[in-house]
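job 3f2a | input accepted
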Amino acid sequence: MLVKTKAIVLSALKYQEKSLIVKCFTESDGLKSYFVPSAYSGKKSNQKIAYFQPLTILEIEANHKNKGTLEHFKEIKLANAFQTINTNIFKSTIVIFLSEMLHHSIKEEEKNQSLFTFLEAALLWLDTHEEISNFHLIFLLEMTKFLGFYPDTSNVNCNHFEMIEGVFSPFQGISCLSEHETHLFKKLLRLKFDLDQKIFAGIERQMLLKILLDYYSIHLDGFKKPKSLEVLKEVFN
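job 3f2a | predicted structure (237 res):
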């Protein structure tokens, strides 16, 4: 079936000398993987390697056979040409890290319009704003709404966050955050992209990132921490 849709690139894996296997989250069908036979050859101008950078937003026309095999692009163009993400070291590092996180987190092979809308809006916000220190933290926490383990805030006044059940507790059990960690986590829960980016010190961001990665590890089977994590820490140190 010929499909026209927007697609966000999650990963691009080199195959043999000139080809790519590209994993996308599409607006029309959720997760899809595509075979790009001549990505490095320069012959097919509509399938250049530049289109497949992490979290690039594409407009594609593709043949979806829906047989569990690799699909093929017919036409590709940029839906939104990023202005700053590819040239700003902080933004490009965030995008590489988040693309790995999404690659290991999103398993849905069916349409999820609300998740696609969130991803697209978040990326466009990142591209057009300069105060981005907490972007990756807010993004990862917001993603848990779509992945099914957003924290239950009904007892948010309690002093400890229990990681396995995702609830706030008055007691510090073995899988609970400390009072200080819980305090930071509550501040993050109240944060939106447009709010004060200087609310956390660097060491606090590192602490929150560790909490979020541990939280993902607990709730997602087979979750792998991104290889780009150390680079992210270095850039934001």
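job 3f2a | The CA atoms of residues 153 and 189 lie 9 Å apart.
job 3f2a | closed
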